[in-house]
Write a structure and sequence with these properties.
Elements (H helix, E strand, L loop, with lengths): L3 E5 L4 H12 L3 E8 L4 H14 L2 E6 L1 H17 L6 H21 L3 E3 L4 E4 L6 E4 L7 H4 L4 H5 L1 E2 L7 H10 L21 H8 L6 E4 L5 E5 L22 E6 L4 E5 L5 E12 L7 E5 L7 E8 L2 E11 L6 E6 L2 E9 L8
Parallel strand pairs: 1-2, 1-4, 2-3, 4-7, 8-11
Antiparallel strand pairs: 5-6, 8-9, 10-11, 12-15, 12-17, 13-14, 13-16, 14-15, 16-17
Helix pairs in contact: 1-7, 3-4
Length: 344
């Protein structure tokens, strides 16, 4: 009996090639476009891809779920002086739940996306693993649940982007050379500060200060800044200045020469366990990059203290700490200030 898979179909090359690969493996593919209400051309492009590949298609409006679980949290964290990561939140709370809901409706066993990651099913538990180094997206997937992972396929896990585009051209897929999609889907121009201002949820301008509290100038609002930022400060100085702290209570942005940005420990909340037993000797990514730092973890409930065996630059509240053992994602936690945890 042919198995059905519900595929997130964006209209881009990654999901299009995913559909083609799944069909080659004998799956019946049902494409689903997740409509966030800001890109009218998106659904047309996705439908065209579905027609080109001869797969069934539907559009699902996710604006209400996106606002409830992602957009409102995005605004709250920026106005609290944090740097949110909406894609990771969306994957667990909106994207995968929607695809799985459609799967239940049509009787499909699997869901799939065009992410560059792998699922290893060699043991009793499915393991989320890195994709190839050039395009690995395991960091942004590390918040999904074990239950979601059990029913998920990543057709591009063993491929790099250049291979995907070449295969799309070989297969005659019209979007073979379509540019990559926007980073934050609900902010098409990527101007998050203007998006926040349109919602009327922005902090007012305030003072840049040094670590002693001396006023160095005026900032545009704390939502414009993140830890470690150097560019766009507009403050003349004899040496380069970096954001070393954001103080929402006093509406201040603290600047320094950057010497205090290196950390030997970090803290996390809402630990998401993807590997059992959960390891305490890991490597950790503290931002969406390829750099990993060896670390020892101390767990207390769903909170974690991260003792970094090599100092790391500016662990940023609102971003994620993602824990690895080799290629396997052990879990992740939202980076928090020490005073927000039980180690305070």
């Amino acid at each position: 009996m042919t198995e059905t898979v519900v595929l997130g179909l964006s209209g881009g090359v990654d999901s299009a090639v995913s559909a083609a690969l799944l069909r080659q493996k004998g799956y019946q593919v049902h494409g689903v476009y997740l409509d966030v209400g800001v890109n009218p051309e998106g659904v047309t492009a996705a439908q065209a891809v579905a027609e080109n590949l001869h797969i069934s298609f539907q559009c699902v409006d996710i604006r209400e779920e996106l606002e409830a679980h992602v957009c409102s949290a995005f605004a709250e964290e920026y106005t609290a002086g944090k740097t949110p990561l909406p894609c990771a939140r969306c994957n667990r709370l909106v994207k995968f739940p929607t695809l799985l809901r459609v799967a239940e409706q049509i009787g499909a066993k699997w869901v799939a996306t065009g992410h560059y990651a792998r699922v290893r099913r060699e043991s009793e538990q499915p393991l989320l693993c890195k994709g190839l180094p050039a395009n690995d997206q395991s960091y942004l997937l590390s918040r999904i649940s074990r239950q979601q992972l059990e029913r998920t396929l990543f057709p591009l896990g063993e491929m790099e982007k250049t291979q995907v585009r070449a295969l799309a051209e070989q297969l005659g897929i019209a979007v073979a050379h379509k540019p990559d999609s926007m980073e934050i889907c609900f902010i098409p121009d990527q101007d998050y500060a203007a998006w926040l201002e349109r919602r009327g949820e922005v902090p007012p301008p305030g003072n840049f200060v040094d670590e002693a509290g001396n006023v160095l100038g005026r900032h545009k609002g704390i939502h414009h800044y993140t830890l470690g930022q150097r560019r766009g400060l507009g403050i003349p100085a004899a040496h380069r200045l970096f954001v070393c702290a954001i103080r929402p209570g006093s509406n201040e942005v603290v600047l320094s020469d950057g010497g205090d940005l290196m950390a030997e420990e970090a803290y996390g909340r809402a630990l998401n366990v993807l590997m059992k037993p959960f390891p305490t000797e890991v490597t950790v990514r503290l931002r969406h990059s390829k750099h990993e730092t060896p670390a020892h973890l101390e767990l207390r409930g769903d909170q974690v203290k991260i003792d970094l065996l090599e100092p790391a630059r500016a662990p940023t509240p609102g971003q994620m700490a993602v824990f690895y053992q080799g290629d396997v994602v052990a879990g992740s936690a939202w980076i928090a200030k020490k005073e927000e945890t039980v180690w305070n």
